[in-house]
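Protocol step 6 of 9: fold each sequence in the batch and record its structure tokens directly after the sequence line. For illustration, a two-sequence batch is reproduced in full.

Sequence one:
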Amino acid sequence: MAKLVSKTYGEALFEVAVEDGTVDSLLREVEAVLEVIDANEEYVKLLTHPKLPVEEKISLLEKAFKTKVSDTLVGFLVTIVEKGRFAEIRSILSYFVDKVREYQQIGVAYVTSATTLTETQQEEVVKRLLETTSYVKFIMNYNVDPTLIGGMVIRIGDRVVDSSIKTKLGRMGKELSQIQLAN
């Protein structure tokens, strides 16, 4: 149900942004609102509290964002509060961000390697990803996991390319355990 809610509202906001030609500016605003929400857990709890009247929630929301983001986004946030969906605000706005990135052909890649990649290696990874995907740009997230021994694991959306030595050794171990030796 939560996925359906985030998709429904996220799609609606995306369609408004495309229609108004404000995709880039609305993306920046949504990312800023997400930062505020992530930094203020108590604020989210307050706006989802069942005993606080909707009018007060809207007033708090408008005070916080009215002069900082567009009327479109404030109106959208007010609608979310009115519909009692503010508890899902992170997933709704995250869906919008993902939708905009897809629209702009920007991929998000998570690269895990056994050691820290040099700047040259990172540039090579980006170059290879751009050559092998339909994306025109990437937002890169690098992590180090020494247990990989060598190689790397790259995740883009639900696609995973695992070329780590740890995985290769695991496969070899499985294959060797399935071999039956003749006497």
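Sequence two, same batch, same settings:
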Amino acid sequence: MMENPRGCWVESQTISVQNNFEVAYATLRRKGAENEDITLASKDGSGVFVVDGMGGCRAGALFASAAAHVGVSALGRGLSASRAIEEASKAAASVEEHVLGEHGGAAGLGLRFLEDGIIEYSSRGDVVAWAVSNGRVTELLKPHCKGFRLTDYLGNSKGVQDKFASGYLQLDNDSTLIVMTDGAWRYVSPKELTSVVEQNDSLESSILEIMNQALLRMTPDDASVLACRLNPSMNNEV
């Protein structure tokens, strides 16, 4: 746990998942404030979900929790990341229609861990991902937003995912996948991601450094970071 004098602290964890992938994730918590970010791994280690409740709407944490639990359950049943995102979006829409009766939703990204270093990814909203490899960073998912306003999100029945919303990434021993909610990526540049990965031996130290950069720049939002890489020495137990 990393503490901050502004009444914030960062909680982090490293786990092993299927097919020799290692995952570390961290989230920012604030004293007296509800965290609307949630990261969940499926029980069988087949995938993870990172979800951020929609800002400015009531019960963002509820939308995020419903979407994340349904999405990660879909991955555990063997569905693709894109299908899991669809299920997560239906869950968020159900909260709006049947539980709260008020507008809301969440941004979310799902990852499915396949064999031979392949990760399937899919997202709606502004939880986005970068691949860092050999000193270069590649944007995998463009955010569905204009400024701070979402143009597509989990729970939006009218949204149409564009060509950047899903795909596959081939990881090797020199590459790292980094996922961030907007409370982090708006305050850390892609160039800094490369430097952080190169200067830190462990995934957890990398994500804590990214979170620290966001904190130093006074991020006002909930923030979460997830990183993934191949690690054959892990025991593949969630």
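Proceed to step 7 once all outputs are recorded. Observation for sequence two: Helices lie at 60-76, 81-100, 182-185, 190-199, 203-216.
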